[in-house]
Every structure is written in structure tokens, then in C-alpha cells.
Amino acid sequence: MKTPAATSSAFLLCIAAACAADVLQMKDGSKLEGTLVKEESASYVFEVQVTKSIKDERVIPKADVAKLIREEPDLKAFEAIANLYPAPDMTTVEDYGVRIKAVESFLADHRGSEKTRQAREMLAKLKSEANEVLAGGIKLRGSIISPAEYRANAYELDATVQDIQIRKLIRETRYLPALRAFNRFSADYRNTTVHHDLLPLVTQVINTYLADVGQTLAGYDARDKERKLGLERMSGSDRRVAENAIKEEMAAIELRFKQEKDAKVGWVSPQPYFKPSLEETLTFGKQELTRISSIRSSTPVDAGKIYRDTLALILRRGDKTAIATAITSAKTALIPQRYIANLESAAAAVSN
To answer: What are the sequence ranges of the domains in the chain?
Structure first.
């Protein structure tokens, strides 16, 4: 199973390269951060970073210094890798590789550090999880799901992954991509428990989103009038440039709207100066609320359990008639064909 990257590889490499710094706590309450070059009897020679590319060496009298705080390079370097384990949910093999490399670099660069033992423990756990994911497992809700566990409950676990991604988008208030993702999720996993549990939150998001779009639509005429007045106040040449720019922008918006409608994305991109996109959003949103309300009021079917039980029956080499009936039940539960194909393939394998 492929999962989205949990973190940026470039980011992990950057934090692994953090630099140490010494600090002079001055008697006047100020601080000077840099690198202690040498200590003399009555002064410190201190190198400070003036700009990104310029350093300056300064002589600081000890009489002006309250305290010298030496930064231990290994401790500073460990701070940069300390959050690499535990890895977040759905971490990919590639990102495990970046995390592992960063910890290995710390161990190579800071032999004898008091953090060596902790870093080695992190490295062992990261490698163990990476091997599980490489073999087909997945990190989910803080735990590694083994390949065997994943295979036994693939339908429900795939639904859980989608649920986590949608909830993350909602937390980030990225409502349009969240609602589009939910539509795709609903098409494939409508009869799972995670889908049913997500419905109240999605209903709340839709209502919030439609309220915002409704306000935008209510202000459409005023915005359009204000833009026209703004154009009228411009000089002839400036007005023509602005009108041409608006014309090009509107042509691009109309094309996008048409493409989204043709692709049946459902939730089109609402544009404040393109009324059809706002009206379409409100119309589709109301349809979605009706659809979701119907699902919430119906008796839920646990398609995840049906998939699990059917696969378990197949692997136990159950009665062929019972297996055929179970697969039919899976189809009735609207489990997508790719999962049905897995069940049929497993049934064919044990019957040989």
C-alpha cells in the first residue's frame, strides 16, 4: 500500500545540520551569541555572525560578562534529531530513510556523546518500522500495522488512512480539498464505520463552507459594481490594460469552471467575481447535505467487517458455497471491485 509522504526530506536534512553556539550573558542583561575562539586572562575572543556571509571577531572584556554558557555540539546536534522518532502516521519508506540517515550521521559525528545510547535506540526502532513498511505494513495511529494485519483488514485500514487525511485537511481549514477528498472517500468507503463516524464533522464543515460562500454571493453585485467604478476612474490607457487583464482572468476562470464540471468534481472552485461558481457550490452543497443526512439516518452496514470475515473464511478454506455467498455479500455492501478482486484471487488460490 502506498501512503503520502509524512514529512519533507529537505526539511529533515536541514534540521540534522543545526549548528552549535556559545553565549555570553552580559552584566547589562544582554546576550551575545556566537563561537568562543579563545579565552584570555582578561577577555574572551568571540566570533559572531553579522550577516549570513559575514563574521566578526570581537574581544569582550571579562569584566563586562556575567556568565559564559558553552554549547555542547553533540547536545545541540541531538536536539535537531530528537523529534525524528516516533515517526508520524503513514510515514513512507523514503522518509524513514531520511530519518535513519540523519540519526546515523549524528552517531558518526558525535562518537562518545552522552546521547549515543538514545540515538542508537531511535535508529533501531526506525529501521524496524521501515522494514515493516517496506514489506507492506503501515504506521497508523502510532502503531505499526504488520503486512499480515494489513492484508486481513485492508478495506477498513485503507478507509482509516483516508479518514485521517480528511480530518487533517479540516483541521487546517482547507475545506475545499477536504470536501473533494470526502466525496472520493464516500464513493469507495461509504459502508465503513470510519465513514459513518466522519459524517457529523463533514456536515458541520459543509454548513460552515456554504455560509461563507453564501456571504460571498450576497456581496457579488456590490463587488462587481465597485470594480466597474474603479475602471471608470482610470485613465484611458490604464483602463484598457486593466480591462484586458480582467478579461484574461475571467476567461481562465470560466475554462476552469467548465473543466471541473466536465470532470464531475462536484465541489467546483468558488470565485468571488464569477457568480455561476458560487451558485453551483451552494446547489451542490445542499445536495450533499441531503445525501449525508440520508446516510446518517440509515442502518449502517459494516463493510469492513464483511471484508475481514470473508477473507478469514477463504483463508480457513471454508465451504466453497459459503465463500461464494460471502463474496456476494461483499459486493452488496458496495465494496469496490479492486477489493472484491483481492477476495476472488485469494479464493482461487486456496481452491487450487
So the answer is: 21-71, 85-150, 167-297, 303-351
Other C-beta atoms lying within 10 Å of the C-beta of residue 229? 9
- Helix segments in 110-235, DSSP class H: 116-134, 147-152, 154-171, 175-189, 193-218, 220-233
Amino acid at 276: P
Say if domain 21-71 classifies as CATH 2.30.30.100.
Answer: yes
Per-residue pLDDT in tens (0 to 9) along the chain, 352 residues: 444 444 444 444 444 334 447 899 999 999 998 888 899 999 999 999 888 888 899 999 999 999 998 878 888 899 999 999 999 999 999 999 999 999 999 999 999 899 999 999 999 999 999 999 999 999 998 999 999 999 999 999 999 999 999 999 999 999 999 999 999 999 999 999 999 999 999 999 999 999 999 999 999 999 999 999 999 999 989 999 999 999 999 999 999 999 999 999 999 999 999 999 999 999 999 999 999 999 999 988 999 999 999 999 999 998 999 999 999 999 999 999 999 999 999 999 988 7
Distance in angstroms (rounded) separating the CA atoms of residues 186 and 37: 63
3-state secondary structure of 1: coil
Q: Which residues pair with 32 in a beta bridge?
A: 24
pTM: 0.74
